[in-house]
Amino acid sequence: MNTKPAVVLLSGGLDSATLLAMAAAQGFETHALSFRYGQRHVVELEAAAQLARRHGARRHVVVDFDLRTFGGSALTGDLPVPKDRSVEQMGQGIPVTYVPARNTIFLSFALAWAETLQCVDIFIGVNVLDYSGYPDCRPQYLEAFARMANLATRAGVEGERALTVHAPLIRLTKAQIIREGLALGVDYAMTSSCYDPGAAGRPCGRCDACLLRAKGFAEAGAPDPLLARFARA
What we know:
Elements: E1 5-9, H1 14-25, E2 29-36, H2 44-54, E3 59-64, H3 87-90, H4 102-117, E4 121-123, H5 139-152, H6 154-158, E5 164-166, H7 174-183, H8 208-220, H9 225-232
Parallel strand pairs: 1-2, 1-4, 2-3, 4-5
Helix pairs in contact: 1-7, 7-8
């Protein structure tokens, strides 16, 4: 088994919960990294904290900065979150829920922490099958970031091993991600996917993230425990 440290980007959503469990199952000592960046769905950070504890993260850090300064996204500005869209509509163009440069910022923080930890492994839960219009979720982007990282850091220039950006979910369907997570003991009742949650984090059930989550559980043949949790509330 591997005992190396790894930085894992942990939003608190379904994908990143599965990602954290996968990294831990591979034997990495996980260091979970989350962000409070002015997102309207900040309740996801409560989920991230629970998940980090459940899956034995060595440390969980939440970094604060405010992308509302720039806006430009339905998640960080006054634009309405799209509701009731079909899967076909979701796949057309770059959606307004895209946050400009967000993954580049997230990965840059992860890179800084990885250097401090003297580790060369970063995990990110991007996926090209959902929201295919997101430019910073593509394999080409991750490869380019890794090349840049190995040119721009002491570890990359002087180290014996190159930095690797792991994206194990990148070509999995939502159903496949859910099945993988269930096999690893992920409690999806702890996760938060909704882009426009109500009181206490209750999912709206109508935004792209909620609709794709529901489709994933249906295709995986499993009930969504988050819905059961709120049904009992």
